[in-house]
Design goal:
The chain is of the alpha/beta class. The protein contains 16 helices and 14 strands. A six-stranded mixed beta sheet has the order 9-10-11-12-14-13. Helix 15 links the parallel strand 11 and strand 12. The model has no long low-confidence stretch (mean pLDDT 91).
């Protein structure tokens, strides 16, 4: 049955009321009014609420609802919508208000051939904001289908300051000098690093069960079902091995050997495919060696989990892995996934951001035996040949400055680094 104008009006009005009533946790949302955007990311990172936030921005700028068209394609009243029906939403808006709207298309991947509609509206100079589930709408697919008409915006779980706002934690301007406020920050940081920062669970005290459910949706839905994988056990073992190896580069061959050793037959090409599917889903994010050859960069990478809470589902003694994973995701969030790498030749540095001239080591404690040789000296050596770079060591709780005359290394606890930088 074709969708009627009355159904469309009901859906649009109900969604308008829902957006107005929504409690928005302000997130970083830098958009250019002359560009179109697609928001992508793992499930439950708050892509829809990014659209809500943009609507609220427009309303604050004096744009009325007569210039805003927001369609949620997960509304059960729209389950029968086909690609031929998509233009009806625009027609109903224009018939009602007679004004060109900003167009928001939420979870549009449910509609086959939606990209043709989106491309046509972009070519007609409409401003569009789109979200979609990673099960059917991956970054690389969007880039292919939409060409250069849209900017792809990565959506991560909450940053630490967003997490504090979501939990209604008030931090004063002079928090660094307040024992009570520092204690509050540390207490929330401890939950942040162990339970993760998925917006849907940020205010949930017992979030492990919810995170486990989310993981299985990603594992079974966004990876196994999407790609028709029959060897789900091998996939589960692969993800577990990636979690156990989160601090170290790992090769495809090593991953295959680990899975074969458990009695599961799997080929190297299949391992390569499975890793690609896992990174496509945004469950894990790959990182390359800044100095390696093309072949090594492609075949031996580090892999970090998009959320520490998801990573923590797999770990027994998690502290050091969670700390490095947290730093990795924060750097990617701040500088972009493609800008952050690790550095390994005769010595190793956990992260470098060449465009920003930043080198970072992560060490849970610098007081452990062998730490100076392993963590401090490589960074000092690097600093001596890169005098204009900023050098950091992120720890669990230690803070000081190391200056040997050739390099200056700032040592900060992770909770403070997240607050300052």
């Amino acid at each position: 049955m074709p969708i009627t104008s009355d159904i469309i009006r009901h859906c649009l009005t109900d969604k308008r009321e829902e957006i107005l009533a929504a409690q928005i946790v302000p997130r970083r949302l830098d958009v250019d009014d002359q560009l179109n955007y697609v928001f992508v990311g793992v499930r439950q990172t708050g892509k829809t609420y990014m659209l809500y936030q943009r609507v609220h921005q427009l309303l604050e700028q004096g744009i009325g609802w007569d210039e805003i068209l927001y369609v949620n394609f997960e509304d059960e009243r729209l389950t029968e919508v086909k690609s031929d029906d998509l233009n009806r939403f625009l027609e109903v808006h224009l018939e009602t208000y007679g004004k060109r709207p900003y167009i928001f298309l939420d979870e549009i991947q449910n509609i086959p051939h939606w990209e043709k509609f989106a491309r046509r509206l972009a070519d007609a100079k409409y401003r569009l904001y789109i979200t979609g589930s990673n099960a059917k709408m991956l970054s690389k697919d969007v880039a292919t289908t939409l060409g250069g008409r849209f900017v792809i915006r990565d959506v991560y779980p909450y940053s630490f300051d967003e997490y504090l706002r979501a939990r209604d934690v008030k931090i004063g301007q002079d928090w660094q000098f307040s024992t009570e406020q520092c204690s509050t920050i540390k207490r929330n940081y401890n939950k942040y690093i162990h339970d993760g920062a998925m917006p849907a669970f940020a205010t949930v005290n017992q979030s492990r069960e919810a995170l486990s459910s989310l993981y299985h949706k990603i594992y079974l839905g966004d990876i196994a079902a999407r790609h028709g994988l029959k060897n789900e056990r091998a996939l589960a073992l692969l993800i577990k091995k990636l979690a156990e190896s989160v601090k170290n580069p790992v090769s495809y061959q090593r991953l295959r050997n680990s899975i074969v050793s458990t009695g599961n037959k799997i080929s190297l090409p299949t391992i390569i495919d499975y890793v690609q599917y896992t990174t496509d889903s945004w469950l894990v994010l790959p990182m390359e060696n800044e100095l390696s050859s093309f072949t090594t960069r492609e075949s031996q990478k580090k892999y970090y989990f998009i959320d520490c809470g998801l990573l923590n589902l797999f770990l027994i003694n998690p502290e050091t892995s969670l700390l490095e994973n947290l730093v990795a995701i924060q750097l990617m969030r701040r500088y972009g996934r493609d800008q952050v790498r690790f550095y390994r030749n005769s010595h190793e540095i956990d992260f470098v951001v060449p465009d920003s001239k930043l080198a970072v080591q992560v060490s849970y404690s610098l007081l452990e035996p062998g730490t100076e040789e392993r963590e401090i000296k490589p960074l000092q050596h690097f600093g001596a040949t890169h005098p204009d770079w900023q050098l950091l060591i992120i720890t669990h709780e230690e803070e000081r400055l190391l200056d040997n005359g050739k390099s200056r290394i700032k040592i900060l606890p992770a909770w403070k680094w997240l607050m300052i930088y």
